Amino acid sequence: MKLLENMVKQDGKVYPNNVLKVDSFINHQIDPKLMMEMAKSLYEYFKDKNITKVLTIESSGIAPAILVANLFNVPMLFAKKSVPSTLKRNSFYETKVHSYTKNVTNNIIVSKDFLHSKDNVLIIDDFLANGRAAMGLVDLIEKAGASVVGVGILIEKSFQEGRKLLDKNNIDVCSLCRISSLENGKVEFNKADDILKK
Ligand code: 5GP
């Protein structure tokens, strides 16, 4: 998606360990118009898939996920990184996810009340790096006996393992912008960056 690539080129900042900061338009301050355009592109890609729920992980996935869910006219559910005191034991699905940027492992949970075996679930997240967050969400969906329709990502770092891992698991991934390298602080994009091509 050209609009997103241009924003990444203009305002993205490369940090050590291949971390890209996009705090001025996605991760801290949010550009609502760009976010809406991104949501529309993800909707276009998955619109024929009979989606009944959009799932993400707190917190950065929430903004794109809620806009995508609104376009599908379905609820958006986000996995929590801590168990609220009001949730009883055995009333939630749980899995472990290692955070790429924070280097910690969290137990992530969703309430059994909101994910059901009949759900066709679209996963949305801001970044795809090693695929731990996405695979954790896939695990929660499978624990509920629901179906994974695919994964919609704003920024994929294609040089990391996540895309390969999702492809290996036959999961349909749509990434709006694919980065081939962040070497020497420079952002390089994959050549064939077309949201309808992988
Ligand atoms: P993964 O689980 O695929 O390794 O990493 C994806 C998660 O880590 C995303 O939910 C995102 O919040 C965070 N993340 C991974 N790489 C980056 C990055 O380069 N920049 C930012 N801002 N977040 C990242």
From TrEMBL:
What Pfam family is a match, any one?
A: Pribosyltran
Question: Where along the chain is xanthine bound?
Answer: 20, 27, 157
The alphabetized UniProt keywords are: Cytoplasm, Glycosyltransferase, Purine salvage, Transferase
Q: Its Gene Ontology molecular function terms?
A: glycosyltransferase activity
Among SUPFAM superfamilies, the record links this protein to:
PRTase-like (SSF53271)
UniProt catalytic activity: XMP + diphosphate = xanthine + 5-phospho-alpha-D-ribose 1-diphosphate
- Residue positions annotated to bind 5-phospho-alpha-D-ribose 1-diphosphate are 129-133
Compartment(s) of residence: Cytoplasm
- Role summary: Converts the preformed base xanthine, a product of nucleic acid breakdown, to xanthosine 5'-monophosphate (XMP), so it can be reused for RNA or DNA synthesis.
Subunit structure of this chain's protein? Homodimer.
Q: Any idea what this protein is called?
A: Xanthine phosphoribosyltransferase
Question: What species was this sequence derived from?
Answer: Gemelliphila asaccharolytica
